Structures are given as C-alpha cells and as structure tokens.
C-alpha cells in the first residue's frame, strides 16, 4: 500500500483491462446478453448515480440515510466495542460519514472499483477524522472479497448499505452473504440495507425518473466500456428500459438495441442485432422476514432492524 496521508493508505487492486474485456465479451455473447452492474461505476457513472439519489422519485438513498442518522447511536450501544468498518462498494463514502461522526471507529476500509471516486473521497475524509486509520482499497469486491489484515486486529463491522445486495440473484446472494460472514470474522458484525416490497408504480417511478438520470446511468455502462475497452458502441442505438418483474420480485434494467451494432471486444468482433436486449441490472426487493432468514442462513444472528414510517427500506444489524 502507498501512504497518501498520515492516516490514509491506498492499495490498488484494480482488475486488469484484459480480464474485463474477456468478461464483457462472454456476458454479451451469452444466450441472454447481459453486463455486470459493476460496469456502471466509473467516475462518470458514480456521478450519475449520485444524481439519481437526489431525484424525488428515488427514495432508497434518502430513506436509508435518515435511518442511519436516526439510529446510529442506538447501533453503537448495541455493538459496544471498538471497531474497524469495512465497506465493499463504498462509492463516495457518504454514508460512512454518518458512522464516522457518531461512532468514532478506529479504522475505515472502503473497497471501491472506481479509483477516482475512492481517492477523491478518502483524501477529503482522512484529514477530517485524524483519529481514524483509513485503508482505501481499489478493487472489484465481486471477484475476491479479501482485505489486507493488520496486526492488532479489531472486530470488523461490514457495512453494505444501499440495497446493493439486491443486485445479486438468489443463489449468488446466498454465497455473497456467506462471504460477508467470512469477512466479518467470528467477532464481527454486519450492517446492511435491504430495499422493501412496495407498489409496482412506486418502483417504476424510482427507476424511470423524469429528469432522465437513471436512463443516462444505464446508458453510461456502454460509454464506460467504450472509454475503457474501446468497444465502439453507438449509444444512440440503445434505449433505457426499467420495469418491475412481479414474478421475480425485482426491478430489471435493460438496454434495448434498435440498430445492428458491430463492436470489437478483446480482439474479437461481436454483432448485437436490432431487437437485442442487454440486461444490465436486477434490483431485488425484500420482506424483513425473508431477508432476516437469509442472514441466518449465511451464519449471522440478526440483532435489530430499522424501518422508516412508510416501510420503504430496511437497515439490518447482525452479529457473526
Ligand atoms: C446501488 C444497486 C442499490 O438497485 O437501486 C439505481 C442502483 N440502478 N437506479 C439500485 C440503481 C438504477 C441501485 N443500487
């Protein structure tokens, strides 16, 4: 790791471009062409996601933020120990700020795939919390959920807000939650956000905001691949689609292709014909009971769960 500030180290495990190219080629060539949602998040994508979180229609971020603010002290009393916070997919670390303010943890380790975003955020944060040791790790946490370990190890609290867990399909979710349990260690904790079932209309609006930020965010996945892998997608040939899939209890996002696209990825050419739909994201919705059961299955003991008045969103605290 590089020492960037007295209390900030930076470890770069950004995945090699060649690996990304092979992965993208194979997922776009599959029977159901798809892309991993992690490709949404380059510098531009993180900025677009930020814009989404400020739209009136997208309730999750502001609801969860309010829950964290309101209950952080109660959480700290329940935890009753010194901690290091580990946050896979930390983005701009906005939510961690709430915990840093109210908990005074000894360490904070954000893992984030967007290097610019991670560096900007931690360079800002570290001087503001001189008593906290910051270990920034640029990594694709979906590849390997391992983190550097130090000597005097404190119990870890794994922080996984935002209902990012909703991106995983049920089987992958079970594995991932078990990985989070490993990451937490035997004396650790998990603080995780899970978006709740609600009316399809409300969900539809949240993923089809009138300002068009969600559409821009969805299309940016191709812009990102153009910038990073020089694929040559024509963004004008694609259209944003988002809808609630009642059977699967998830919001799906797709990019509908209206014109034949000849692109080049990992040295191979690939044609996406007009009418092809590229599946870019699932966002599963949960009930408190089902989600708590999934935590138990992964080896956690649920401690508390907080909901807003409208029961839009849930925040779960569990121990290993
Ligand atoms: C960051 C994955 C939780 O699923 O709601 C927002 C991403 N996609 N609008 C979500 C997203 C479209 C978001 N997560």
Automatic annotation (TrEMBL):
Molecular function per GO: L-histidine N(alpha)-methyltransferase activity
* EC code(s) of this entry: 2.1.1.44
The record's Gene Ontology biological-process terms are: methylation
Q: Does the keyword Methyltransferase apply?
A: yes
Could you tell me the keywords of this UniProt record? Methyltransferase, Transferase
Domain (Histidine-specific methyltransferase SAM-dependent) spans: 21-319
NCBIfam families xref list = egtD_ergothio
Q: Which PANTHER family match?
A: ERGOTHIONEINE BIOSYNTHESIS PROTEIN 1
- The gene that this protein is the product of is egtD
Q: What is this protein called?
A: L-histidine N(Alpha)-methyltransferase
In which domain of life is the source organism classified?
A: Bacteria
């Amino acid at each position: 790791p590089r020492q960037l500030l007295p209390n900030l180290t930076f470890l770069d495990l950004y995945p090699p471009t060649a690996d990304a190219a092979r992965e993208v080629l194979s997922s776009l060539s599959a029977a159901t062409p798809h892309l991993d949602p992690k490709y949404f998040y380059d510098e531009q994508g993180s900025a677009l996601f930020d814009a989404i979180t400020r739209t009136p229609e997208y309730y999750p971020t502001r609801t969860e933020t309010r829950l964290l603010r309101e209950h952080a002290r109660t959480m700290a009393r329940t935890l009753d120990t010194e901690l290091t916070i580990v946050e896979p997919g930390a983005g701009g670390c906005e939510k961690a700020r709430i915990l840093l303010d109210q908990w005074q943890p000894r360490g904070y380790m954000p893992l984030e795939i967007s290097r610019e975003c991670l560096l900007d955020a931690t360079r800002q944060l570290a001087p503001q919390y001189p008593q906290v040791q910051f270990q920034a790790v640029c990594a694709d946490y979906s590849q390997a959920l391992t983190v550097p370990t130090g000597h005097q190890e404190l119990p870890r609290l794994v922080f996984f807000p935002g209902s990012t867990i909703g991106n995983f399909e049920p089987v992958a979710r079970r594995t991932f939650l078990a990985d989070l349990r490993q990451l937490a260690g035997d004396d650790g904790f998990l603080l995780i956000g899970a978006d709740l079932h609600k009316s399809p209309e409300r969900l539809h609006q949240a993923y089809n905001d009138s300002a068009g930020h969600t559409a821009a965010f969805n299309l940016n996945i191709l812009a990102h691949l153009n910038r990073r892998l020089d694929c040559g997608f024509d963004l004008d040939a694609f259209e944003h689609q988002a809808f609630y899939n009642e059977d699967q209890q998830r919001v799906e996002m797709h990019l509908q292709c209206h014109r034949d696209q000849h692109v080049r990825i990992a040295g191979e050419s690939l044609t996406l014909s007009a009418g092809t739909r590229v599946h870019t994201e699932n966002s599963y919705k949960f009930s408190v009971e089902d989600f708590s059961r999934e935590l138990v299955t992964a080896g956690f003991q649920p401690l508390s769960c907080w909901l807003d008045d409208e029961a839009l969103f849930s925040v779960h605290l569990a121990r290993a």
